[in-house]
């Protein structure tokens, strides 16, 4: 199974269209959205082509291929217009020899690690807008960065997980960082 991860779209029609274009180019089975889909948030600037209504249209067109969780900027009103579930604070994706815990990162993170994970599992999160790929005490911490509002001079990114290989890529498809999960 090939999974594509994106986080922190923050209502940008421009960057969401780029994410969906990459999803189609990558031919991933599912697009896993790690929260903060429609609203830009009070601490963020308005992103390029901020248009939540058009983002809703784009995402609903591929609703059967989306796995999503709630971010700190997402609300029940967002769920009323999105045609896929996105209100869970976390979820699990089972793989052959491990499980992925997906979450936004504001409730569960490296510093607030859930007791649900064991050696070999991965916490996949967004929220901080910075790509992270690391292993600590047998648990993997994976963050695709932000597709819309990256921080600390990182480019707009997304991630691919296939055959236990996690790649963070720029929105032109170039590998930015990678990690083999053992």
Describe this structure in words.
The chain is of the alpha/beta class and 182 residues long. The chain has a single domain (3-180), classed as 4-Layer Sandwich (Purple Acid Phosphatase, chain A, domain 2). The protein has helices spanning 13-26, 52-61, 76-81, and strands at residues 3-6, 30-33, 66-68, 90-94, 99-103, 122-125, 131-136, 139-144, 157-162, 165-170, 175-180. A 6-stranded mixed β-sheet has the order 3-2-1-9-10-11, with helices on one face. Strand 7 (131-136) and strand 8 (139-144) form a beta hairpin. The longest helix has 14 residues, at 13-26. Its EC number is 3.1.4.-. Residues 1-162 form the Calcineurin-like phosphoesterase domain. This is Phosphoesterase. Its cofactor is a divalent metal cation. It comes from Turicibacter faecis.
Give a brief description:
By secondary structure, the protein is of the alpha/beta class. It contains three helices and eleven strands. Helix 2 links the parallel strand 2 and strand 3.
């Amino acid at each position: 199974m090939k999974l594509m991860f994106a986080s922190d779209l923050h209502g940008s029609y421009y960057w969401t269209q780029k994410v969906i274009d990459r999803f189609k180019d990558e031919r991933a089975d599912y697009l896993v959205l790690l929260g903060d889909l429609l609203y830009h948030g009070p601490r963020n600037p308005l992103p390029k082509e901020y248009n939540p209504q058009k983002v809703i249209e784009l995402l609903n067109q591929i609703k059967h291929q989306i796995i999503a969780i709630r971010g700190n900027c997402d609300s029940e009103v967002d769920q009323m217009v999105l045609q896929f579930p996105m209100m869970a604070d976390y979820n699990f994706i089972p793989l052959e020899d491990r499980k992925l815990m997906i979450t936004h990162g504001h409730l569960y993170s490296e510093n607030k690690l859930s007791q649900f994970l064991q050696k070999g599992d991965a916490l996949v999160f967004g929220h901080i807008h910075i790509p992270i790929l690391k292993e600590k005490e047998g648990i993997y911490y994976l963050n695709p960065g932000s597709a819309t509002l990256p921080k600390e001079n990182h480019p707009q990114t997304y991630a691919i997980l296939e055959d236990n290989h996690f790649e963070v890529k720029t929105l032109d498809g170039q590998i930015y960082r990678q990690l083999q999960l053992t």
